[in-house]
């Protein structure tokens, strides 16, 4: 719970890091006369105190229904989460019924139009730039959102599609630090002010929403934004715009910050501003009452940060991704001498799995949902041979070779300068032992089964010595054995380690392959961890420890997932925020035919051995 001392509602203007013109959105009237919760009044009927509730979603990623399009079934996960705006709608209506609809506002924290086949379909297959209505716009308009901030994934499909989406929604898309590359002016609305009138009378309360987004889009979507948009720092631009919102009369300021809570950047020092800066912003920028944060796909019910200049408390909340949670900020205000003042802010999360889907939202998108279900079950190509992932944990398979081939090909295609001259490798993990590509017709769902996570693709630069270290670390996945077998898979895989005391999960084992020439090696399980990689060679020659390679990796691994060595600190040479799963689908759609001979040799790239003798696993 957070409490604060009273303070004036207008703060002095802070010095901006860069000169910008003042751009403000026209106030949107959000309050009405259908309810009130003032406790006590002045002699003129003015409430003396009031509670305002601001609800927030983040990282919805195109999830409207509680549906897994790749599984062709209702969404489910181990913790029992539900997803989608239809679930969120039921939570929103609960809060509105409890608080009085006129005493609530609803906002979103970005990453709206990318992440599901539903979102992809209306960006690429039947794009909204050609007349279709985006289902996210339909659902969010029906829910009555007051504002949203741009997430980094809003730029994935290009600016024409983003502008088309902006035209379809009934609320402003905010981006105070998204700047026109030519003029330096904001390219999107920096802020908006919503007006709430307690009990439908008395002096209204003005609620300012400032929107800032992580500046990494300058790298992740360089192809879409370079020369057109620039991205200022979260802290620097908030320091400029928050005073402007106060000057415009805001009694309450909420920052919609599509940035993680704590510092750090997946793009290293390629930009002068950090990727994740919500806490830093709350500490350094006076005048903020609450921060809706996101981008990191984590769950923060309430976090209190002390502003270093004023000593005031700033409350942060982050709802879990895909509509699994709804953040609520209860903001208590008091009225004295013509001024509304924030007294306290309390935040909590509501769980979407506690409510049914809102039937109105379900009905609104039913036809588009059915269209996309048909699409993901549609045939996009033909495979000349079956490919199974059943043995991919302990045997070189065409299934993982396919993933590595598509990843490496895409990274190579985007390399420039001297990086384009380096050999390209790729890593892939055996995510799903049940996955199989059949011989004959192949559907979108078949391909997606090989890659069940929504990871994105990066390319990093590593040396031969670092690659050997990486493979040695990966080989910890295997148990040490006492003979060449025969052995059961359970006697070989999922080794217990100090950090994986119930066994190393399959997704923390990587195999590596070359694109234009083979990378070959043996994993000798007669040897201890750290000394298992034998005969590591590239294009038939022992690998040079000093030679540089570009390695295609997923964002989970590059950000430190699994704690693999070197990859987190390796120079990033490609990062366009492309979903690997979608890249595979696109490749099959473009080629029409999957021929395993193109990317998988009859001679395995890697084998498990015992003292040089191939391991027999049955």
UniProtKB/TrEMBL annotation:
It is found in: Cell envelope. Pfam families: 5_nucleotid_C, Metallophos. This is Nucleotidase. GO terms for biological process: nucleotide catabolic process. GO terms for molecular function: 2',3'-cyclic-nucleotide 2'-phosphodiesterase activity; 3'-nucleotidase activity; metal ion binding; nucleotide binding. One of its GO terms (cellular component) is outer membrane-bounded periplasmic space. It catalyses: a ribonucleoside 3'-phosphate + H2O = a ribonucleoside + phosphate; a nucleoside 2',3'-cyclic phosphate + H2O = a nucleoside 3'-phosphate + H(+). Its cofactor is a divalent metal cation. Residues 1-30 form the signal peptide. Residues 53-298 form the Calcineurin-like phosphoesterase domain. It comes from Actinotalea ferrariae CF5-4. It comes from the Bacteria.
């Amino acid at each position: 719970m957070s409490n604060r001392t009273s303070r004036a509602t207008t703060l002095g203007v802070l010095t901006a890091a860069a000169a910008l013109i003042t751009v403000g959105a026209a106030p949107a009237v959000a309050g009405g006369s259908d309810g009130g919760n003032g406790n006590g009044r002045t002699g003129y009927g003015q409430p003396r105190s009031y509670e305002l509730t601001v609800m927030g979603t983040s990282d919805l990623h195109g999830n409207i229904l509680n549906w897994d399009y790749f599984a062709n079934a209702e969404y489910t996960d181990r913790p029992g989460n539900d997803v989608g705006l239809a679930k969120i709608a039921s939570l929103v209506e609960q809060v509105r019924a409890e608080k009085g609809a006129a005493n609530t506002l609803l906002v979103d924290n970005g990453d709206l139009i990318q992440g599901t086949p539903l979102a992809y379909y209306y960006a690429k297959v039947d794009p909204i730039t050609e007349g279709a209505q985006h289902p996210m716009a339909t659902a969010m308009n029906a829910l009555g959102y007051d504002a949203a901030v741009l997430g980094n994934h809003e730029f994935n499909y290009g600016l024409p599609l983003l502008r088309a989406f902006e035209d379809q929604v009934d609320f402003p898309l905010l981006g105070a630090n998204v700047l026109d590359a030519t003029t330096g002016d904001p390219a999107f609305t920096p802020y908006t002010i919503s007006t709430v009138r307690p009990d439908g009378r008395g002096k209204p309360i003005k609620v300012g929403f400032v929107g800032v987004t992580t500046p990494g889009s300058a790298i992740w979507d360089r192809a879409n934004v370079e020369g057109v948009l620039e991205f200022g720092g979260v802290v620097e631009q908030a320091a400029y715009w928050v005073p402007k919102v106060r000057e415009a009369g805001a009694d309450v300021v909420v920052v919609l910050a599509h940035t993680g809570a704590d510092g750090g950047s997946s793009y290293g020092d390629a930009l002068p501003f950090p990727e994740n800066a919500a806490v830093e912003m709350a500490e350094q920028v006076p005048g903020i009452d609450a921060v809706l944060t996101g981008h990191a796909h984590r769950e923060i019910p309430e976090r209190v940060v002390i502003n270093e200049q004023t000593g005031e408390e700033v409350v942060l909340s982050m709802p879990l991704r895909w509509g699994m949670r709804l953040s609520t900020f209860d903001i208590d205000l008091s009225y004295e001498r013509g001024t509304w003042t924030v007294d306290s802010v309390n935040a909590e999360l509501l769980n979407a799995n506690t409510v049914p889907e809102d039937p109105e939202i379900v009905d609104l998108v039913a036809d588009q949902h059915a269209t996309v279900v048909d699409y993901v079950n549609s045939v996009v190509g033909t495979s000349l041979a079956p490919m199974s992932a059943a043995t991919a944990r302990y045997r070189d398979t065409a299934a993982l070779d396919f993933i590595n081939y598509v990843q490496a090909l895409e990274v190579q295609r985007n390399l420039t300068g001297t990086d384009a001259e380096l050999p390209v490798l790729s890593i892939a993990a055996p995510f799903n032992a049940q996955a199989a590509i059949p011989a004959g017709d192949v559907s979108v769902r078949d391909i997606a089964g090989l890659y069940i996570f929504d990871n994105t693709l990066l390319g990093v630069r590593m040396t031969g010595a670092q690659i050997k270290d990486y493979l040695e670390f990966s080989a910890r996945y295997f148990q040490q054995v006492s003979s060449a077998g025969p052995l059961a898979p359970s006697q070989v895989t999922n080794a217990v380690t100090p950090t994986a005391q119930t066994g190393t999960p399959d997704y923390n084992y990587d195999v590596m392959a070359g694109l234009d020439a083979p990378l070959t090696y043996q994993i000798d399980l007669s040897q201890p961890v750290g000394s298992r990689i034998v005969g590591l060679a590239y294009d038939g020659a022992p690998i040079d420890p000093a030679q540089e390679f570009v390695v295609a990796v997923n964002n989970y691994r590059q950000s430190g997932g699994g704690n693999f060595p070197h990859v987190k600190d390796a120079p990033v040479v490609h990062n366009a925020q492309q979903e690997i799963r979608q890249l595979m689908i696109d490749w099959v759609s473009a080629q029409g035919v999957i021929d395993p001979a193109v990317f998988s040799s009859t001679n395995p790239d890697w084998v498990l051995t015992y003292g040089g003798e191939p391991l027999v696993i049955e």
